[in-house]
Amino acid sequence: MTNKEIAKSFQLLGELMELHNENPFKIRSYQNAYRTLRNWEIPIAEMDTASISSIPGIGKAIQEKIAELLKEGKMKTLERYKIQTPEGIRDMLEIKGFGPKKIRIIWRDLQIESLGELLYAINENRLVELKGFGKKTQDDIKQKLEYHQKSKNQFHYAKLEHVANTVLLALKQQFTKAIIDLTGDIRRNMPVLKEITILFGTNEENDIKQLQQHPFYETIIDNVIHWREKENNIPIIIHCCTLDNYGWHQVALTGGKLLENIDLYNVNKNDTPKEEAIFEQLGIPFLLPELRDLPNVSHQKNIKPLINNADLKGIIHAHTTDSDGLHTLSEMANCAKSLGYQYLGITDHSKSAFYANGLKVDRLKKQWEDIDKLNIELAPFKIFKGIESDILADGSLDYEEEILVQFDFIIASVHANLKMDKQKATTRLIKAIENPYTSILGHPTGRLLLSREGYPIDHEAVIDACATYNVAIELNANPYRLDLDWTWIPYALEKGVFISINPDAHSKEGIKDIHYGVKVARKGALTPDMCLNAMDIATFTQWLAHRKNKKQYET
Fold first, then answer.
1. Which domain CATH number covers 424?
2. Average pLDDT of 49-63?
3. For residue 291, what is the domain's CATH number?
4. Predicted structure pTM score
5. Does residue 463 or residue 418 have the better pLDDT?
6. Smallest Cα–Cα separation from 481: which of 162, 158, 84?
7. What is the b/e burial string over 444-474, where b = at least 16 CB atoms within 10 angstroms of the residue's CB?
8. Tens of pLDDT, residues 40-49
9. Is residue 546 packed enough to be buried (19+ CB in 10 Å), middle (13-18) or exposed (0-12)?
10. How far from the centroid of its chain's Cα atoms is residue 447's Cα?
């Protein structure tokens, strides 16, 4: 079991015990164990008993439960609470922002035990009379419930990519005469997926029989084989075709808006082993799969080479143990340098972010001293002094001007007061963009894919403001965010706004999330010349200096 899987068992145990109004001290100990274990770097499954017991906050009772999980794959105490709790109630715990206390009231007072019953009760306005609820709370729960149901049985791209590549490699090694590749949404780098889809081209009937003997096999319908990866319950759909019409099937199955503008069924699909033959028949330039969702995509011409991982020269958004990161400033810098980057922008949380150990001015100045020392040690690699400044409710930035002016750059982000209406939310962001110290607008909508919808903003107005005030926009590469949404990248490029692909790394491993940002940036046709952190260290330093001069002029 992975550390996160072990941690989630304790999270669920704490939630179920809270549902049943159990001892609050035990509940708190399990909640603390969840937070500790999910962030523990060393694989717990590889640690001995003494080492596990030495983890801060892990006492004998929790250590024994960990040992039970590792040995049996389950925990007796957790299983007992699962039996005592209806499945529908456990489903409610999966709804983000809908905690055990409120669920317990609904279960106890209304005898509701399923998501369907809950939605019906909401539509009947039965929650408004419950203590601690009211109309506003009922509406909030309804919105969260509907979003949860819409997101169910979907996966983040990052969750499926490794599984897909592993399966693909195994198939290619086994079936050497076949042509095998990803297809469908995963081939187009869609941020959220329902399944892994594979196109399998072969002229050997025995190949299809062998696919049906695989441990993942479930069924076959009209040359479409359905597998299911058991560990993560991931559907894998394998479409089988002959080699001579592989190209036609790949275009058809890859899909995207491209298919809205062409009549693929009037194309001769025979003798088309490659996709290029289909595009040639259609009389349009060949389009990379990730571009096939762009509007009027079949009319796109002269698209420049898209951004690649190798184009990125620096990491601009990273956190350390000074706020809520897992690794020290030195560890993050040395990791970024070892990965081949030229620079690192440290952006710990600002002072108002009490929830993330935000930096008060005295701690901030100590970090600056540490950065100066490391810059001498690691040169020519450079650490830039940044901050992820909270955008306050009125649109102002954290810290006084005498502190703001000393940063090399500032990412301005919203983390609190997320329930503003569209007009207020947009006005708030634009005020932050207008601030002469804002360099980059961070994760513009604050969304968490499959967990929380972004707050409503007028994207065009926000991007127009960034163009006016020369503010870059972050494409937050965390696979749970991927915000700015890729669909707005073309408009930003049209307005001349730089996109910064930022991992929002809270650990050394988190730096590698930048890969997912690149994947989705390519969908929006982002090119290296319009990517802020594709600038080399000299050009990025020049860009920052230009902004500094502009600040002095404006102030």
1. 3.20.20.140
2. 89
3. 3.30.460.10
4. 0.84
5. 463
6. 158
7. bbbbebbbbbbbebbbebbbbbbbebbbbbb
8. 888 999 998 8
9. exposed
10. 9
